[in-house]
Each structure stands twice: as C-alpha cells, then as structure tokens.
Design brief:
The structure is a single chain. The protein has 2 helices and 30 strands. Helix 2 links the parallel strand 4 and strand 5.
C-alpha cells in the first residue's frame, strides 16, 4: 500500500459535492411453492435455493414481462405488466390506501428483457422508488427460469439510469440484471442524494449490475444514503469524461459524502477503464465510509490511483475481510490512500497481486 496526494483541490471536492447534491432524480412464472397471500390473494414467491433475501418479510407479488400489458392486473404471472413503474404505481396505491399487509415487503418479479427506451424522461430513472411513505420495502428479482433484465437503453445523447432510490429500501435479488444506464452520476443505481430523498437504502443480495456508464459511479452512486452488499456482481461498468471537468471516478461504486457502504459478500470486478482516473472498483469521497468484511474486488482498472479502491481526503476504508486482487492502476493498483485525512484501517482480508503494487 502506498500513499499518494489526492490531486483534487479543495474547490474540486466542493464542486463534486454540489454536482451530486443536484440529485439523481433529475438526471412471468411463479416460483415453485408459491402461495397465496391470505390478506390480498396475491402470490408470494419462495426464493430459489441459495437466495440471500430474507423470506420472512416477503408479501404480495407483482409480475412484469417484456410482453406484458400495463392495463392488466400484474398480480398473476399469466397477466404481467409491461413496466416495473406500473407495478410500483399499483403498490403505492395499495400502500398509501392502507390496504397493504403489515410488515410485508413488495416483490416485483421481472421476466425477460424489459427496456426503458422512450418510457421515461432523459436523465431520470427507468424505475423511480422515492418519496417518504409511498412504498413498503421493495424486492426486485428475476424469474428463476427465464431470468430478468432491466435495460435503460441509454447513451450520451439520451441519458438516464435504471434505478433511483430515495427515502425507501430496495433489495436487488437473484436472476435480475440492471444494465444500459448512461448518465452523469450513478449509471445503473443512484441512492438518496439530496433534500427530502436523502435516506435511500440499497441492499444487493444477488443479481447483477453491468454495462452501465457515468462520470461518478459507473455502476452505483450512493450519497447521503446507505448500501449493503451481501451477494451478486457489480461488473464491467465504466466511467466517462464526456461531462466537461468532471473526471471519471468510481467505475463500480462511488461512495459519497455522508454515506455508509458495507460489503460482506458478492463481487466487484472488471470495472473502470481508460476514462476512470480513480477507484476502478470503489471510490470513497468526502467523509464516506466503506466497510469490507467479505466479498471480492477483482480486476478493476483506473488510470491514476486506486485500481481496486481509492480513498479521497476524509474518506475511510475499514477492511477486516474479503479480497482485493488483480487490480491495476498507474500507482497503488490495490488501495490508494490520499493525503489530508484519508483513513485505511486494515485488520484482515487479503490485498495481493495488484499492479504495480498493492
């Protein structure tokens, strides 16, 4: 591990925070053994073996498919809806109307590839789960047989991300891939960035986040929110310098100011690239905290510092388990610790095989 001075001037850090504070928002078949919910009559799927999603809170289920119809009911796998947002509208209506079973999460099962082209405004989200009191905790998962994909299908000239979370808790489960996002921050997922929507929580228990692009957080950006990763993969996401003076930071995950990211499982791999200056796998900004007790950060790339993990001034990385291996950068291929208050508390886990050093 080597220490290198962080190249941002103080004013650059301030600009970064101001950019993010503008907000992310403006930017099927039933499971075997599924049961009817006694309160609502809706099917409640049982997760496939190996799923890390807690079963206890699961409640009513809605189905979404590429061949679905938003005028359909959505509560029966034979009559799926066409979009996740349509399912959320129905969930919101029942939840706010006092018809939701107490203590239960909403489950949305996606079958096949559902694309977002033309279905949401530029620089916004294909799926928007925000607003205090609008929803119960939401679990997004794919069909266990066909799998599921949410593809934002965006590019530099038509921006947008897959998922925005504000003041709500969302879990990504097995068999679902989030892809095709392209925006300034949080290519696939943006969690709680400002004001009334600053308390979002994202739990990644399975699934995949891949093939997304942003200047900050090619895969995921968390700001004034919380993320927990227990499984799944964040892979092959990139950052872009096509937004003027904003450098590419955090190919896989960008941990922003006032944010806690805990990783106990899963893999962050193959992120970053030619336009990622710092933090090919994970970048920690401001006073953000990244706690790693397990999982793997592998084969990520940045051009300047921190191929695996980059800790900016005032940021903290506490590592007691897991692996940081095979990452590459011009300097500090594994973990880069900036000057001016950055902290790396390494009490366990393995850092090895990074280029040019760990």
């Amino acid at each position: 591990m080597s220490k290198f001075s962080f190249s941002f001037a103080a004013v650059s850090l301030t600009v970064l925070s101001m950019i993010i504070m503008a907000g992310c928002k403006n930017s099927l078949l039933p499971y075997p053994g599924s049961e009817k919910n006694s309160a609502s009559g809706l099917q409640t799927p049982q997760p496939p073996q190996g799923s890390q999603i807690p079963q206890n809170p699961q409640g009513p289920t809605w189905y979404v498919s590429a061949g679905g119809n938003n005028s359909g009911g959505g509560a029966d796998s034979s009559k799926p809806l066409a979009t996740v947002q349509a399912a959320l509208d129905k969930i919101k209506s029942e939840y706010r109307g006092g018809k939701w079973p107490a203590g239960k999460s909403a489950v949305i099962v996606v079958s096949g590839t559902v694309t977002g082209s033309g279905s949401f405004k530029s620089n916004q989200a294909m799926v928007d789960i925000s607003g205090a009191g609008n929803y119960p905790p939401v679990i997004l998962m794919g069909d266990p047989v066909k799998g599921g994909v949410l593809n934002a299908n965006r590019n530099r000239n038509d921006e947008g991300r897959v998922l925005y979370i504000g003041n709500n808790t969302v879990t990504l489960g097995d068999n679902l891939t989030l892809t095709g996002g392209y925006t300034l921050w949080g290519g696939a997922v943006c969690v709680g960035t400002h004001g009334k929507d600053s308390k979002g929580e994202f739990i990644m228990a399975g699934g995949e986040i891949s093939g997304n692009t942003a200047s900050l957080g090619g895969g995921v950006l968390i700001y004034k929110g919380k993320m927990t990763m227990t499984g799944g993969e964040i892979k092959i996401n990139t950052t872009s310098k096509s937004y003027g003076n904003v450098m590419g930071t955090g190919g896989g995950v960008f941990v922003g100011e006032g944010t806690a990211f805990t990783m106990s499982g899963g893999t962050i791999s193959g992120n970053g690239g030619a336009e990622t200056d710092k933090g090919g796998g994970v970048a920690i900004n401001g006073d953000g905290l990244f706690t790693m007790t397990g999982g793997d950060i592998l084969n990520n790339t940045s051009t300047e510092h921190g191929g695996g993990v980059h800790i900016s001034p005032l940021g903290k990385f506490a590592m007691s388990g897991g692996t940081v291996n095979g990452n590459t950068s011009a300097a500090s291929g594994g973990v880069n610790v900036s000057s001016y208050g950055a902290v790396f508390d390494h009490t366990g886990g393995t850092i090895s095989g990074n280029t040019p050093n760990n």
